[in-house]
Amino acid sequence: MKKKILNCLLFLLLLQGVELQASDGVLFNEHWRFYKGDISGGEMPACEDTNWRLLNLPHDWAIEGPFDIKYNARCGGLPFHGTGWYRKTFKAAQAWDGKVVRLAFDGAMSEAKVWVNGHFVGEHPYGYIGFEVDMTPYLRLGEDNVVAVKLTPRDLSSRWYPGAGLYRNVWLRVDEPVHIAQWGIYITTPTVTDKKAVVQIQSTLENRQRKSGIYKLVHSVFDKSGKEVASIANQINLKGETNKESIVYTDVVEPQLWDIETPDLYILKTNVYSGDKLLDTSTTRFGIRKIKFTKKGFFLNGKQVRFQGVCLHHDNGPLGAAFNRRADERKLQIMKEMGANAIRTSHNPPASEFLDLCDELGFVVLDEAFDEWLKPKVPNAYSNYFKEWAERDLTDLIKRDRNHPSVIMWSIGNEILEQSDKQQGFTVAKFLADICRKVDPTRPSTAGFNYYPAPFNFNMAQQVDIAGMNYKPAVYDEVQGSYPDLLIYGSETSSCTSSRGVYHLPIEKYLKHQSLQVTSYDLIGPPWAYPPDMEFHFLEKNPRIMGEFIWTGFDYLGEPTPFGGKDNSTNGYWNSDWPSRSSYFGAVDLCGLPKDRFYLYQSQWSDKPMVHILPHWNWKKGMNIPVYVYTNCDEAELFLNGKSLGKRVKGRDLTTILVDFKYYKEKTFASKYRLSWDVPYEPGTLTVKAYKAGKLIAEKTMTTAGRPARIALIPDRKSIQADGQDLSYVTVRIEDKDGNLCPEADNLVNFSVEGAGHFKAVGNGNAATTESFCVPYRKVFSGMCMLIVQSDKAKKGQIRVTASSKGLKKASLEITSE
Ligand code: GAL
User: Fold this and answer.
1) pLDDT above 60: residue 5
2) From the alpha carbon of 448, which atom of ligand 1 is closest?
3) pLDDT at 712 over 80
4) CA-347 nearest atom, ligand 1
5) Could you tell me if 620 and 683 are in contact, meaning their C-beta atoms sit under 8 angstroms apart?
6) Interatomic CA distance for residues 501 and 594, integer angstroms
7) What is the mean pLDDT of residues 164-175?
8) Backbone angles phi, psi at 379, to 5 degrees
9) What interhelical angle do 596-605 and 532-541 show, nearest 10?
10) What whole-number distance in Å separates Cα of residue 160 and Cα of residue 556?
11) 620-653: pLDDT as tens digits
12) Which residues contact 303 (CB under 8 A, 6 or more apart)?
């Protein structure tokens, strides 16, 4: 009954879109004790943990640092490896007598081992996929019980920052012996027309008692307004200690289709009865939509959609890998603003709430399982578990995620080293792609291939339904010619690098500038990289290619390419350019502040009239400054201090950029995607006016800034929820007395956060600094930094933020927590 009320409540919340639960159950995140290090007997109830740190999950133990050259810069230069213990003492209710009581971990980084009252109950090595443990046999009802989790993430176990700890949600599930199995509801829509959708509901009922019985399942479908629009019931004869699947169909009349622009959702509520007694309730959100992959491209509800995609790692910069719904939501909103319509969860399963957000915001998703199979890229990563775990992990990933309308493909791997192995590449690809086809026949399998032509010659690429190509735009036509039946898209593209607000002049190819920053003219990358313009060009030439997924939407912790090569003096770690320790690949920086490249993509991906101008306008008199303009308008005119420097027409006036790309013969590329002027520098204002069909529709001005005079605080939201989780991201700008951004300022700013919230983290997008994310002060980088403020739980009221810096006018801000 309690669960029924809980589920009703949950259902109401679901309909209001307030909070979605990843799995039926209640959150089990509060009051954990944490110890960093190994403890003999840490699993035993008697272990003294009262002096361990008390905290709430999700928690990433490594983000607090310190950054240190002794850690691998490739993984963020943070102390993620080693042993960590979590323990929680909880009362097991008498009412749980006769019930099945389980804990579901949405992800534990990594090599998790779990005990209940000293009894081993389960383990899971791969940190990115969830698992359940059954506590039932070991619980002491009416008494205190202890769950203990030991995690041992290993050094050299990742090519990026994985985070560490119980970094996703943990759920408690208390079920009757007969209940819906984990991930036991699978909804598909085999027929979809404007008039009617056929909804297929496959449910797995689990019986944990000896007794067999007859059970009734009642399925009801609700639309987004909460109206019941369909229902169907079926009966199941279930033997003792077995699971049984059943399939029923129901119709939704005049369905509201899930789409990128209108991501309408439905909810299925399934009740399980024995006679009149309600045994279990499960709520599942789903969407009604049609996907089709053809030689002409990808079609969503009959309309062609080209992937304007971004690859995203799972961390949230200064917050580390710990799941936070608002941080993920903001990440996706920023990507949407850039014009992205597709996400690739590189190179691992995301938190399932991330997919909830993609469902709600309207993104299509390529859900990726692995970065390696049997051949290791780094010594201690997944290849160690592949043989034993790959089938289960891939199956679980698909079962967990197959009700999300946003998910359109399963990726079985990224740049797998088996590509160069004639036999093994084919065999393993077939094995994994067959799992995808079996567990979810409604979506194609894919993988990202970068060793062209080997995996195509070896019949490996042909084992997946759709072949992803990493960094090969120049051979799209060749591949289509050689393999006319293959469906292809750019699974990873560009890998252009830059540091927000940093410009090196004169423009040239500094692969590794001594500042450990990369110029933001959007030209530079490692040998396999190329400017975004080239991908745009080749996609235009090859309309059959389904689109691209850029590397990457956001900067992420670790992989500081082009810096951070192998350093033999520090165990061969990737930290030779210390403190360079996070990526330069993002279109936005680690804090979510847009770099220039954000606007280059926006000019290509968005119809909303826009114009962007770079670099900044604080130079030395007499310098010759290359000025680039990114716009989706037809033409643009540049004015220096009111004087026209001429109009440039898109498509006619090309910008010659330097390229150095392995697969492209030429050393220059004439880009129609950026307009340019060479401007002899004079202080003042540089304005660009952009026109469409002769009409002025977008304009931007840069003004030479004077000396830093004041701080400006700009919150992304002035009102947040008092749930102890919600965040306000406050952009901090150093401005001159007239409010112009000081583009080269690096002032140290001190923060205080009081009232109904607290300081959560701070960052500035500088990829080469060891400053902590967890202290309430920060130097700005290129004039800006980001303060992240969090609400306190159940404390409504004002959050007062103040910022001060030596010699500058203070700033303050109030955020409402309600
Ligand atoms: C790709 C790889 C990504 C990332 C990227 C950087 O080869 O798949 O994970 O390393 O290169 O350019």
Assistant:
1) no
2) 8
3) yes
4) 9
5) no
6) 9
7) 98
8) -65, -30
9) 10
10) 8
11) 999 999 999 999 999 999 999 999 999 999 999 9
12) none
Which residues are CB-neighbours of 123 under 8 A, at least 6 positions away? 111, 112, 113, 114
How does DSSP classify residue 594?
Answer: B
CA distance 119 to 148: 10
Angle at the Cα of 207 from the Cα atoms of 201 and 209, rounded to 5 degrees: 170
Residues 392-415, mean pLDDT to the nearest whole number: 98
Quick one: pLDDT at residue 662?
79
Note the pLDDT tens digit of each residue in 82-117. 999 999 999 999 999 999 999 999 999 999 999 999
Are 127 and 323 in contact by the 8 Å Cβ rule? The answer is: no
Look at residue 337 in the predicted model and tell me its pLDDT: 98
The rounded Å distance from CA 448 to ligand 1 centre is: 10
Report the pLDDT value the prediction gives residue 233, as an integer from 0 to 100. 98
Angle between helices 596-605 and 325-338 (to 10 degrees): 60
Amino acid, res. 583: S
Atom of ligand 1 nearest to the CA of 525: 12
- Structure-token match 């010594």, residue found: 379
Q: What is the pLDDT of residue 568?
A: 77
The pLDDT score that the predictor gives to residue 14 is 39
* Residue nearest atom 11 of ligand 1, based on CA coordinates: 495
At 574 the pLDDT is: 83
Q: Where are the beta strands (DSSP E) in 567-610?
A: none
- Taken in order of first residue, the domains within the chain and their CATH numbers are 26-174 (2.60.120.260), 178-287 (2.60.40.10), 293-605 (3.20.20.80), 611-703 (2.60.40.10), 710-817 (2.60.40.10)
> Quick one: tokens of 478?
């060749």
Rounded to whole angstroms, how far apart are CA atoms 358 and 328?
Answer: 10
Tokens 């308008």 appear where? Answer: 633
Active site (annotated) includes residue 415:
yes
Closest CA to 523 of 659, 708, 379: 659
pLDDT-derived band at 600, boundaries 50, 70, 90: very high
Pull the structure tokens for residue 180.
């819906």
Which residue's alpha carbon is at the smallest distance from atom 3 of ligand 1? Answer: 551
757-763 β-sheet, strand order: 710-715, 727-735, 784-791, 757-763
Q: Which residue has the tokens 């941080």?
A: 327
pLDDT at 661: 82
